[in-house]
Write a structure and sequence with these properties.
The chain is mostly helical. The protein is built from four helices and no strands. It is flat and about 50 Å long.
Length: about 110
């Protein structure tokens, strides 16, 4: 397995995997940065999601990978849970998270200060 990963040459599988993971990290960090502003938050989610997609696809390309069924099953279950919870909870009910924790967040509707 190690010989397949460390083949010499410019376009070796290991180099492709390393570059893809670097791209993933950059997309995820840029996505988090864009999520800090309400104006660019939607595109930040897309950037971070693109980074996670690249990471997932590169994982499937890794030489010697044999856990395809487990990975696909986890992706499907996680996607279904995220879709269900996203449809169930209205965005207007999400509590904003303050930098210092719950003490700086606005109070819940109908309750006093937290």
């Amino acid at each position: 397995m190690d010989s397949a990963i460390s083949q010499p040459g410019f376009f070796s599988p290991r180099l492709l995997i390393d570059i893809s993971y670097f791209l993933t990290a950059a997309l995820f960090i840029l996505g988090l940065k864009r999520m800090s502003s309400p104006v660019t938050a939607r595109s930040g989610i897309l950037w971070a999601g693109a980074g996670m997609l690249v990471a997932t696809l590169v994982t499937f390309l890794y030489p010697g990978m044999t856990n395809y069924i487990w990975i696909i099953t986890a992706i499907v279950i996680g996607s279904l849970i995220a879709w269900w919870s996203g449809r169930r909870v209205a965005a207007s009910l999400w509590r904003p998270m303050g930098h210092l924790g719950a003490s700086t967040a606005p109070p819940w509707p109908g309750r006093g200060r937290v």
